[in-house]
Amino acid sequence: MLKEENASQKENTQHENENNQGEDIHRVPDLKEYDQTNNLSLRDLNFGLWLANNRKKIRGIFIIILIIISAGLFIYSAYNYVIYFKSANVGSQLINDTVPQSPRKIVSSLQVSPLNIFNNYYSGKSDLVVRIFNPNAKFSANFEYCFSQTNKVLVCKKAFILPNQKKYIFDLSQVMNSNSQDLKFKIKSISWRRIDLHQIPNWTYYLNNHLNFSIKNIKFTPAQNNSLSQKIALNSLNFSIQNQSPYGYYQVPLNILFFSGNKLVGVNQYFLENFFSGEERKIEIVWTGNLSGVDRTEIEPDLNLLSDGIYLPYRGIISN
Predict the structure, then answer these.
(1) Is there a single domain that holds both residue 227 and residue 293?
(2) Which of 49, 254, 296, 301 supports an S-S bond with 259, CB 3.0-4.6 Å?
(3) Residue that terminates a domain, selected from 194, 213, 238
(4) What pLDDT band is residue 292 in, cutting at 50, 70 and 90?
(5) Same domain, 207 and 306
(6) Which pLDDT value is given to residue 201?
(7) Same domain as 227, residue 143
(8) Per the confidence metrics, is the pTM higher than 0.90?
(9) 76 confidence band (pLDDT: 50, 70, 90)
């Protein structure tokens, strides 16, 4: 009996195993069981499969995008060349009549006031003065100028003017004949420089920061009131100047202007050597002449702030 029961149990177990194996064969696998296999998710595998199936399409789309970008850049360049060469008046784009400029770089000409002549009867020489205005807010200029008389050049020099600057150009103690009607001022050559907004985003701040000089206690004494003028007429000027900027300068030219009301009646010039940041100096100038009616004196530092060669190496601020 026991043998028959055991045989029956084995037969039942065998039938159950066969049934389970049949169910496993026909069962639909659950893909979630294979997620995160070997650190790759099912999403990654699907994305990789999609890339493999669409590789040619993706490459084609990428090539088309590159072609569109290249065509756009080519059209933009061609358009600018057409504007550059076929502008309405190419001649007006010339600087020095030689260098063509694109329309956005066209500059307005410097404005020059009538020439002033101040004669020094004691020395027999004359001071020649013109006022120049640069109407361009984004361009500075370096130029060469000449004073001439009866087709004879008296003096030629180089100068500069900053954006939107009004300044006096003058040459002192020039020998000339008595006929001042044929005296002329001419700008011979000029080169423009556009302000780089990446380096100088705010020109007004840059200008005020670099030209931060305090000039005070200005006292002008004409020859007739000067105790020094016993045998020869001598004017004198006293003032103090402090460099309140964070920069030191090898040389600071000072243009000195004398006014009677709003009329310019005389000029002079003085040079400060090795003027350090924070330094203050008291200046006294004496020169021959007899300026009269002066009721206002202006002193203007004349520095080309766009030239690297004007700055002293940093040594800190000098404190008094």
Answers:
(1) yes
(2) 296
(3) 194
(4) confident
(5) yes
(6) 93
(7) no
(8) no
(9) confident
Percent of the chain at pLDDT exceeding 70: 75
In this predicted structure, the answer to whether residue 260 has a pLDDT above a threshold of 90 is: yes
Q: Of 194, 225, 242, which one is at a domain's C-terminal end?
A: 194
- Which contacts (CB < 8 Å, 24+ apart) does range 119-124 have? 120/173, 120/288, 120/289, 121/290, 122/232, 122/233, 122/288, 122/289, 122/290, 123/173, 123/288, 123/289, 124/175
Give the pair of three-digit tokens for residue 252: 């600071």
Count of domains observed in the chain:
3
Residue 296: predicted pLDDT: 96
Between CA 209 and CA 313, with CA 274 as vertex, the angle to 5 degrees is 65
What is the CATH classification number for the domain harbouring 126?
2.60.40
Assess if residue 159 is contained within a domain. yes
Range of the domain at 157: 108-194
